[in-house]
């Protein structure tokens, strides 16, 4: 795949250089009989130059897309780091909930003891 990209890049750059050289060569004015032929050749060189430039831009876009989509290692590392961070947060929340449960249970136990030993409880049962 990388070799194909390099080959396409070389072909596009070579085409750009050839067509630019052709445009410069055709820009010399020699005599009036060759002017129409040179104008046509210049038009062909310019069109080919534009085509090669567009092809090069498409190649760049493909490379960007390929790099973005095929960076699985980086994406996996980021997913693993996020997953690990979320697991740590879950563990912290679980620990906090456990402490809260034990605090609530002990507070409830104390409240029940106070209630059952209080004078209000004893008066209601009578």
Distance between the first and last residues' Cα: 91 Å
Residue share in helix:
over 70%
Q: Estimate what percentage of residues fall within beta strands.
A: under 5%
Outline: rod-shaped
Largest sheet at a glance? Answer: none
Number of strands: 0
Task: Work out the count of structural domains.
Answer: 2
- Give the integer mean of the pLDDT values: 83
The number of helical runs is: 4
Structural class: mainly alpha
Low-confidence stretches: none
H and E order: HHHH
Rg calculated over all Cα atoms: 40 Å
Could you walk me through the main structural features you see in this protein, from its secondary elements to its overall organization?
The protein is mostly helical. The protein has 2 domains: 1-73; 86-126. The chain is built from 4 helices and no strands. Helix 1 (2-26) runs antiparallel to helix 2 (35-69). It is rod-shaped. The model has no long low-confidence stretch (mean pLDDT 83). This is Mediator of RNA polymerase II transcription subunit 22. It is found in: Nucleus. It comes from Aphanomyces euteiches. One of its GO terms (molecular function) is transcription coregulator activity. Keywords: Nucleus, Transcription, Transcription regulation.
Explain the layout of strands and helices:
Layout: H1 2-26, H2 35-69, H3 72-117, H4 119-125
Helix pairs in contact: 1-2
Features:
rod-shaped; transcription regulation; Mediator of RNA polymerase II transcription subunit 22; mainly alpha; about 130 residues; 2 domains
Structure at a glance:
It is found in: Nucleus. The protein is built from four helices and no strands.
